[in-house]
Amino acid sequence: MCSTSASGTNAVRFGTMRENVLNLECVLADGTVINTAGLKARSRKNVAGYNLTNLMIGSEGTLGVITKVALKLFPQPETILSAVAPFPDVASAVQSTVEIMQTGLPIARIEFLDEKSIQANNIYNKMGLDETPTLFLEFHGSKGTVDQQAEAAMEICKDNQCKEFNWATDPEERIKLWHARHNSWFAFKSIHPNRKAISTDVCVPISKLPEVLVQTKKDIEELNLKTVIVGHVGDGNFHTFISLDTADTEEMKRYYAYSEKLVRHAIKVEGTCTGEHGIGLGKMKYMEEQFGKSPIDTMRLIKKALDPNNILNPGKIF
């Protein structure tokens, strides 16, 4: 999680790993052990020296090996309200997300599953969800506060042709409502047995999310790929799961074409080629396009200073 600054469904409220790590213990390439924010520092604010913590987070193991993590803790909210809202199409579901975020509602989670992902969940989890693009939402706070937030979100969803808006505060009912989102990866793999499953992601400005997601759906259909879309749409971050027969040369060509289109769409609208999964090897070729030459040269200088013999995850990122 730290190495790619990944997050999860709560990131829209609480941020990614970068916002939630107070200190790291790291082992550098020469064996030196450092504490990035100070020997014992765990204060909420710290502007002493360079921000080594955030340098290490997201560096994909190329600058040091993380051995300890000091994390922020958050109190359990008085009330948690979860909701599920199916829509007639992708555009209306994602437009609701944009409008909810623009209102400033302090939503804790807002996730998206396309109709194929819902279909896979109905088969795998024996659920009876409406097989249309669906938002999964969650609100935290006092009883009165979460009810008001849910009602405001419901009105926005209804204005965008939401079919229904079901919510619950009972823990067991909330777990049922979120079951499909939490099991999407396993559901997807189960309906495409004996094939390789791959997940990739991009992240775009919230205002550009409807445009990019609609175009991505068109690309999937045109290239005839076995793919579903799920996303942390409150952040503008979404993932696509792709099922592949790696021995099928033509299918692999279509997959690479799709991956290229996905990243190009994101960068074109001032997004990033990855919001969580990292660069690794697969997205190295997009780094200079996204950053320009000088920032990449600066990254290389940092890498050379901390790992002159290139022994930490060599060949990754750039």
| Low-pLDDT segments, ≥5 res | none
**Could you give the order of strands across the largest sheet?**
7-4-6-5-9-10-8
Average residue pLDDT: 95
Largest β-sheet summary: 7 strands, antiparallel
Total strands: the figure is 10
Supply the helix-strand structural class. alpha+beta
The helix count comes to 12
Pick out its properties.
318 residues, alpha+beta, 7-stranded antiparallel sheet
How would you describe this structure to a colleague?
This protein has helices at residues 11-14, 17-20, 52-56, 90-103, 115-124, 143-159, 171-182, 184-191, 209-223, 249-268, 287-291, 293-306, and strands at residues 21-27, 33-35, 65-71, 79-86, 109-113, 134-141, 166-168, 196-203, 226-232, 237-244. The chain is α+β, with helices and mostly antiparallel strands and 318 residues long. The strands form 2 sheets. The chain has a 7-stranded antiparallel sheet with strand order 7-4-6-5-9-10-8, sandwiched between helices. The protein has a 3-stranded antiparallel sheet with strand order 2-1-3. Strand 1 and strand 2 form a beta hairpin. It is globular. The two termini are 20 Å apart.
